[in-house]
Automatic annotation (TrEMBL):
Major subcellular location class: other
Record's protein name: P-type Zn(2+) transporter
SUPFAM superfamilies noted in UniProt: Calcium ATPase, transduction domain A (SSF81653), Calcium ATPase, transmembrane domain M (SSF81665), HAD-like (SSF56784)
Signal peptide: none
Length: 613
């Protein structure tokens, strides 16, 4: 396209020089015609294809910008304005070139991510390391990672310690230290050392693959602004053609000037009316915003989601793992029937098969107290969602969970009082209450600043948690959250969320499988550092645990939506003014050409602003 534009510009200037010095008129016309053909053949063919829809009954697809430009150019030829016809098409293509350039740059994030995907991995089998295609590695296979290598698959470190560069995936600038038990995402780069890891996802389901797919399909679900432009164009284009026809064929019989004058004004009217500034710049604003978010480790499924996020009035948060780190420390054991060591041993055995953060913390506390005692599988454990765990062996039944579990199971002599802040885990053995343990959970770094930022933007904040009232109140007070509800089961969270939905656009922020239903039900579901079910149910996925990325996602959404409205207002306003001036003869064909191209370029440049990180 650039080569054709350069050659056409040269021929256009050459034709003007020939005309200015009164050389052979035929040569100047040939220059203008070749310039028109080089730049305009694709537009004319596209316009003919659109007009062909009349024979297929697709009347809504007959008129588009290609038809408008073709009519304007052939009308100029009919009036003997060869220079104007060539100039219309050349400058139109210059505008299209810059539009395409902007769109290409906005897709750089996709190309970078696709290029990041390593094709091979070092597979460990029976102590032998072999390079294989990443697609051949199965879940559970062991792989080796060496300094300088890019991680090919999502995996869990099973031995070694190293620093990894996560910037390509999470946007974090500083390397992160990883050790046994930590999760690696595809796309991370090992800075030093050697790690052994176990693949937790196949190549096609890795974080990097999911990111690429999300961004590539992000424009499939159009925003309200894009749907407005599509509906508007279906009405706008035929109306413009009809008005141009009225100007050319009716007004000469009403006003002075003759057919040629009014036909020329009709052509000017058509050139100005070309809607390319709207058609291109509005989707570009959202696509650029999605690209900017992806560079910061924020995945947004579509431009419709981005637009909805910008209109959010309330943010509802899960607590554990979302606002807090989800890594509990044992603060206190309150039991007059068991020693601290025995209490923790029973609680750890009861919850040994659970992946809940509290269960992991109890296991860690048990390992610290009794490093030689391993958690065995003698208990058959049944996890009760939102309540706790019931574990049975041949001789014993253990219950570990919240107060509601104790009451539902009619535990005798269950009574407790605790003024300390933290998550409380009650323990019952064979139907008898044995006491409770107090676990403390730290707030995530940046959580308070994030809440303050949302409140300054006029957002209502609400926290829903299955934790006890004391722990929930302490977190809500420290963060400055407007309201909170404690002691909730997953279905109760969903009920409260649905109650809030009537008061404007609601975003729900969570991280676990038990949040999946709420993430799917909210106007915008936002998953923090989530995997599998929670991530698939969410509209926005923040792939690291940095809660501050939530504020950035909201800012990007507001900026993209604001830029889209700026482009709609500016493009429509300026076109209406210039169209009126052209219709009454106060704007010539050159003013029309430059005004149309200028409006398009300004809108595109404005849209690119949405791509700033």
């Amino acid at each position: 396209m650039l080569k054709r534009i350069v050659i056409s510009l040269f021929l256009l200037i050459f034709g003007f020089v020939l005309s200015y010095f009164n050389f052979n008129e035929l040569y100047s016309k040939i220059s203008f015609l070749i310039a028109f053909i080089l730049c305009g053949y694709s537009v004319v063919f596209a316009g003919l294809k659109s007009l062909a829809n009349i024979f297929k009954g697709r009347f809504s697809k007959i008129f588009d910008e290609n038809v408008l430009m073709s009519i304007a150019c052939f009308g100029a030829f009919a009036l003997g304005e060869w220079a104007e016809a060539a100039a219309i098409m050349v400058f139109y293509m210059i505008g299209e070139y810059f539009n395409d350039l902007a769109i290409t740059r906005s897709k750089d994030a996709i190309k970078e991510l696709v290029a990041l995907r390593p094709r091979t991995a070092l597979l460990l089998k029976e102590g032998i390391c072999q390079e294989v295609l990443a697609s051949e590695v199965k879940i559970g296979d062991e792989i080796e990672l060496r300094a300088g290598m890019r991680v090919a698959l999502d995996s869990e470190v099973i031995s070694g310690k190293a620093f990894v560069d996560t910037s390509a995936i999470t946007g974090e600038s500083l390397p992160r230290e990883v050790k046994t038990g930590d999760i690696l995402l595809a796309g991370f780069v090992l800075k030093d050392g050697t790690l052994r890891a176990k693949a937790s996802a196949c190549e096609s389901q890795s974080a990097l693959a999911r990111i690429s797919k999300l961004i590539e399909h992000a424009s499939a679900n159009k925003s309200p602004h894009e749907r407005f432009i599509s509906r508007f164009a279906r009405v706008y284009t035929p109306v413009v053609v009809i008005l141009a026809g009225l100007i050319a064929f009716i007004l000469p019989f009403i006003f002075d000037g003759g057919f040629e004058v009014w036909a020329n004004r009709a052509l000017i009217f058509l050139v100005i009316s070309c809607p390319c500034a709207l058609v291109i710049s509005v989707p570009l604003a959202f696509f650029a915003g999605i690209g900017a978010a992806s560079k910061s480790g924020i995945l947004i499924r579509s431009s419709a989601v981005l637009s909805t996020l910008a209109r959010s009035k309330s943010f509802i948060f899960d607590k554990t793992g979302t606002l807090t780190k989800g890594v509990f420390n044992l603060n206190l054991v309150c039991s007059d029937k068991l020693s601290d060591k025995d209490f923790i041993a029973h609680a750890a055995h009861a919850t040994s098969s659970s992946n809940h953060p509290v269960a992991k913390s109890l296991g860690a506390a048990h390992a610290k107290m009794q490093p030689d005692c391993k958690l065995c599988g003698k208990y058959e454990c049944n996890e009760l969602s939102g309540l706790g765990v019931r574990a049975k062996s041949n001789s014993d039944e253990l219950l570990a969970g919240n107060a509601k579990l104790m009451k539902d199971c009619s535990i005798s002599d269950f009574e407790y009082s605790c003024e300390h802040e933290g998550s409380i885990i009650h323990l019952a053995l064979n139907g008898r209450y044995k006491g409770h343990a107090l676990l403390g959970d730290e707030l995530k770094s940046g959580a308070k600043e994030m809440i303050e930022g949302l409140k300054n933007a006029g957002i209502n904040t609400l926290m829903l948690t299955g934790d006890n009232e004391i722990a929930a109140k302490a977190v809500a007070k420290e963060l400055g959250i407007d309201r909170f509800y404690a002691g909730l089961l997953p279905e109760q969270k969903l009920e409260l969320l649905e109650r809030e939905l009537g008061g404007g656009v609601v975003a729900f922020v969570g991280d676990g499988i038990n949040d999946a239903a709420a993430l799917a039900r909210a106007d915008v579901g936002i998953a923090i550092n989530a995997q599998d079910v929670a991530a698939s149910a969410a509209d926005v996925v923040i792939i690291n645990s940095d809660i501050r990325a939530l504020s950035k996602a909201f800012d990007i959404a507001k900026r993209s939506r604001g830029i889209a409205w700026e482009n709609i207002t500016f493009a429509l306003g300026s076109k209406i003014v210039i169209m009126v001036l052209g219709a009454v003869g106060l704007a010539g064909i050159w003013a029309a050409v430059f005004a149309d191209v200028g409006v398009s370029l300004l809108c595109v440049l404005n849209a690119i602003r949405a791509g700033r990180k």
